[in-house]
Each structure stands twice: as C-alpha cells, then as structure tokens.
Amino acid sequence: MARDIELKERWDVLVTKLSAQFADGDPLELDAIIYLVGVQELGQLHREFKKDEKVNLMHIAICRLLEPYGYYEFHFFDEEGWPHYTIKEELPTLKSGEQSILMKEALVGYFVEKEYIN
C-alpha cells in the first residue's frame, strides 16, 4: 500500500513538472509522457516528426522504459541515430489498469534515474 501511495505522489509530481514545462500547465496524458521519453531517447529534440515516426518514438520509449524490467535490451543505433532494441522476454498479458500502473512505475523510475524528479 505504501508503495502505491509513493508511486501516486511521484507520478503527480512528474505530471505537474512535465506539464508546466511542455504543455503550459495542462496535464499531460500517459501517452504524451511516453512520447516525450521517445524524443529524449532519440536525441533529436528540435525537429518535427511524421506520423509513423511518432509511432516509432512511442515504441523506442516503451522499449527503453521496460528495459530495466528485463523485457527489452538495447541492440544498436541505426545510421539515422534511431535506437533499436531486441525482445528478451515477452510481456505478460496485463489488464488495461495493470498496463497503466506498469508504465507509470517505469516512467517514474526513468525520470528518477535522469534526476528530473526525486
């Protein structure tokens, strides 16, 4: 229970901080935060992305976020600088709410690691 409370508190801090920085204070949704991680991981911060590139950015983010859990492993950067991952272990079947909790936990861990939040 205490872990759930800590996750909620850290998640709220993360959403507030990112929303102020990237959305003029309008609360960012989970998908938007995942997208931001993809852009960060690609490292091409100041450019426009096509629709298919945005999907790929989300994929990069999910791979990077779930790497510490043992589901993905970084493989290489391609000639355009895009990171590629290999699947180490298939993701378990999760209900929608469970997926959301896993991604929030992974995002909080990512931003703690990057020292963006405590």
UniProtKB/TrEMBL annotation:
Domain of life (superkingdom): Bacteria
**The protein, known as:** Uncharacterized protein
Organism placement in taxonomy: Bacteria, Pseudomonadati, Bacteroidota, Flavobacteriia, Flavobacteriales
